């Protein structure tokens, strides 16, 4: 997508990518910290209703910067230029997930990519990282 291209343009590196139609059981693990919230059953049902694109992005402060590019949980509170600020209106249809800590990112990578990620070096990295 256009936003995937922006991640690349900014200097982030895509190290895993797949289309997945996740089961409710898989999604209940992914969203385990939200179990018991009133919107939880609807969230699982919605996320299991079709395929999702799973991606792992690597780069400087990828979790923090990725969350900033994603915008706030409520799209109405998200700035223009963020994914949710440009492409979403409702909290329960906010398009994209982003790991909220490095620890959770590691857990989520294990859950979605048990086969592992792809490590490689881009020739332009010296122009992106100090
Ligand atoms: P993720 O990147 O998707 O994890 O979003 P987040 O970290 O900004 O929010 P959080 O982890 O608290 O919630 C996960 C997802 O549950 C959100 O992205 C929303 O899709 C959904 N969600 C969270 N709060 C609400 C809510 O109050 N109502 C509804 N309908 N959905 C919610
Ligand atoms: Mg979250």
Automatic annotation (TrEMBL):
So what EC number does this one have? 2.7.4.6
Transmembrane listed as a keyword:
no
Which reaction does this enzyme catalyse, per its entry? a 2'-deoxyribonucleoside 5'-diphosphate + ATP = a 2'-deoxyribonucleoside 5'-triphosphate + ADP
What this protein needs as a cofactor is:
Mg(2+)
Instruction: Cite the SUPFAM superfamilies for this sequence.
Output: Nucleoside diphosphate kinase, NDK
The question of whether Kinase is a record keyword is answered with yes
Q: What InterPro entries does the record point to? A: NDK-like_dom, NDK-like_dom_sf, Nucleoside_diP_kinase, Nucleoside_diP_kinase_AS
What keywords would UniProt list here? Answer: ATP-binding, Kinase, Nucleotide-binding, Transferase
- UniProt xrefs under PROSITE patterns: NDPK, NDPK_LIKE
Residue span, Nucleoside diphosphate kinase-like domain: 1-120
Q: What class of enzyme is it?
A: transferase
Pfam families in the record, alphabetically? NDK
Q: From the Swiss-Prot or TrEMBL record, what is one GO molecular function term?
A: nucleoside diphosphate kinase activity
BP terms from Gene Ontology: CTP biosynthetic process; GTP biosynthetic process; UTP biosynthetic process
What family is it from? Belongs to the NDK family.
Q: Please report the name of this protein according to its UniProt entry.
A: Nucleoside diphosphate kinase
User: Lineage in the entry?
Assistant: Eukaryota, Fungi, Dikarya, Basidiomycota, Agaricomycotina
């Amino acid at each position: 997508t256009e936003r995937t291209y922006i991640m690349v343009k900014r200097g982030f590196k895509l190290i895993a990518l797949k289309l997945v139609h996740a089961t409710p059981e898989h999604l209940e693990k992914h969203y385990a910290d939200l179990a018991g919230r009133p919107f939880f059953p609807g969230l699982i049902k919605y996320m299991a209703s079709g395929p999702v694109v799973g991606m792992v992005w690597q780069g400087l402060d990828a979790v923090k910067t990725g969350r900033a590019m994603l915008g706030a949980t409520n799209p109405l509170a998200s700035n223009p230029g963020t994914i949710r600020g440009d492409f979403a209106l409702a909290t329960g249809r906010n398009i994209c997930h982003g790991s909220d800590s490095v620890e959770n990112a590691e857990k989520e990578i294990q859950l979605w990519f048990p086969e592992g990620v792809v490590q490689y070096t881009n020739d332009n990295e010296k122009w992106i990282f100090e």
